[in-house]
Amino acid sequence: MEADQREIEATKIDKFNTVIDILKKYKVLNALGDNIYDELHKLRKYRNKVHIQDNIEIDGVSRDEGDAFSDDIRTWAVGLNTKVLKYLSENLGRPKHIERYVNPLVVPSP
Questions:
Q1: How far is C-alpha 72 from the geometric centre of its chain's CA atoms?
Q2: Fewer CB atoms near the end CB (10 Å): N or C, the chain?
């Protein structure tokens, strides 16, 4: 909806939060499970911890970024991003007239 697009564009702080809430409003990712939006908000908090030079509190997570960004967290974050991007590319692909500008998603294995 155009009003939702304007809301995202007008957001200056934590735009990812607005995007997640609008995805939830329209149930865009519901097929990925009941907790997908909570997982995206968790990812958003970790993203903010890196992106914003500020103390971002995440329940149960060390303030020490070396501890906070463990191998498990990095693996989870890459996996969540891959799951969402694959779902979107397979189920909500770009319109035919511009699809040639985006290649299929390929995530190299470790």
A1: 17
A2: C
